[in-house]
Write a structure and sequence with these properties.
GO molecular function: sodium:proton antiporter activity
Structural class: mainly alpha
Keywords: Cell membrane, Membrane, Transmembrane, Transmembrane helix, Transport
InterPro entries: MrpF/PhaF-like (IPR007208)
Number of helices: 3
Distance between the termini: 49 Å
GO cellular component, one term: plasma membrane
Helix content: over 70%
Strand content: under 5%
Order of helices and strands: HHH
Number of strands: 0
Family: Belongs to the CPA3 antiporters (TC 2.A.63) subunit F family.
Amino acid sequence: MIYLTLWGLLIAALGGFYRVVVGPTVPDRIVAADAMTVIITTALAVLSLVFENGVFLDIALAFAILSFADVLIMAKYFEHGELHK
């Protein structure tokens, strides 16, 4: 059942990647990128269950924090066109 969950997360991530590449507007791409980071973080948590290794949870936590900051930076950049104000 866990492997089915991982396949479902992979398919969802591919759908998000498609929206990042093809998305009609910039906000659509930002939201899709944020959704992909949530899906990847969840996949890392499930992988920690599969391999019975807590290191994947540490990686998932670090990835989630960095992706949150990345989405904020992208949103500010695309809203104002620059990062230094």
